[in-house]
């Protein structure tokens, strides 16, 4: 039974790998990266899929923006971390306007998982932006709320301020003015606190 499971995982890995390579040759770079990420979500330990994804990213039009970030990951010895690599590629796809592919890749990163709450929060934030761009306000606000929860847990008031602002705008666009008002009030309170803290650090001469 164990051998059968192992064979299934190997064949699944190869299927995702071949799909990624085929899409890459067809010039569908964003879809290729989504295929590699989906495979890694199923088997995060697959070095073949991780290397394939990095190679595909470096052959894509995103190379110029992605390469410096990847070099930083190498220096920090994070270039073999499936979560970090997949989430970085997902955020690059989002920046490049490939919203559908970025959702697939970023959600694959969440399935792979990480112990770092801060890194997970950055993925929640990116997913909220991606779904917003796709017009899916329900999914977007869901990820905004998770982003806010992470910021609160970390005591990150800048992150809280940003998340409340995003939620306020989202609720306003949906006509939920009560929730919009509540979130914008929280945003203003936090913004004032942050401004006061900045003034304390840099008192006027």
Describe the structure.
The chain is mostly helical. It has two domains: 1-114, Serine Threonine Protein Phosphatase 5, Tetratricopeptide repeat (Alpha Horseshoe); 116-205, Tetratricopeptide repeat domain (Serine Threonine Protein Phosphatase 5, Tetratricopeptide repeat). 82% of the residues lie in helices and 0% in strands. The chain has ten helices and no strands. It has helices spanning 2-25, 29-42, 47-58, 63-75, 82-95, 99-112, 117-133, 137-154, 157-173, 177-201. Helix 5 (82-95) runs antiparallel to helix 6 (99-112) and helix 5 (82-95) runs parallel beside helix 7 (117-133). The protein is elongated and about 55 Å long. The model has no long low-confidence stretch (mean pLDDT 91).
Give the topology.
Layout: H1 2-25, H2 29-42, H3 47-58, H4 63-75, H5 82-95, H6 99-112, H7 117-133, H8 137-154, H9 157-173, H10 177-201
Q: Characteristics of this structure?
A:
0% strand, 2 domains, G-protein alpha-subunit binding, 205 residues, cytoplasm, GDP-dissociation inhibitor activity, mainly alpha, TPR-like_helical_dom_sf
| H/E element sequence | HHHHHHHHHH
At CATH level 3, the topology of the largest domain is Serine Threonine Protein Phosphatase 5, Tetratricopeptide repeat
Instruction: Give the CATH class of the largest domain.
Output: Mainly Alpha
> Which structural class is indicated by helix and strand composition?
mainly alpha
Number of helices: 10
How big a fraction of the residues is strand? under 5%
How many strands, what sense, and barrel or not for the largest sheet?
A: none
Instruction: Show unreliable segments.
Output: none
What gross morphology would you assign?
elongated
How many E-type strands?
A: 0
Q: Tell me what the CATH architecture of the largest domain is.
A: Alpha Horseshoe
How would you state the average pLDDT, rounded? 91
Helix proportion of residues, in percent?
over 70%
Q: Radius of gyration from the CA trace? A: 20 Å
Number of domains: 2
In whole angstroms, the N-to-C terminal distance is 75 Å
């Amino acid at each position: 039974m164990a051998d059968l499971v192992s064979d299934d995982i190997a064949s699944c890995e190869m299927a995702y790998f071949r799909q990624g390579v085929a899409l890459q040759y067809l010039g569908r770079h964003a879809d290729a990266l989504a295929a590699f990420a989906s495979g890694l979500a199923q088997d995060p330990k697959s070095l073949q899929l991780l290397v394939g994804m990095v190679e595909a990213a470096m052959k894509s039009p995103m190379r110029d923006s992605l390469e410096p970030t990847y070099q930083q990951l190498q220096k920090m010895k994070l270039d073999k971390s499936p979560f970090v690599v997949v989430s970085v590629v997902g955020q690059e796809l989002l920046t490049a306007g490939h919203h559908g592919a970025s959702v697939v890749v970023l959600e694959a990163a969440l399935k792979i998982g990480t112990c770092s709450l801060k890194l997970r929060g950055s993925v929640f934030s990116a997913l909220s932006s991606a779904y917003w761009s796709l017009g899916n306000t329900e999914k977007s606000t869901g990820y905004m709320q998770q982003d806010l929860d992470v910021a609160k847990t970390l005591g990150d008031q800048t992150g809280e301020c940003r998340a409340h602002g995003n939620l306020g705008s989202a609720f306003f666009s949906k006509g939920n003015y009560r929730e919009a008002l509540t979130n914008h009030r929280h945003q203003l309170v936090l913004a004032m606190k942050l401004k006061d803290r900045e003034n304390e650090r840099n008192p006027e001469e």
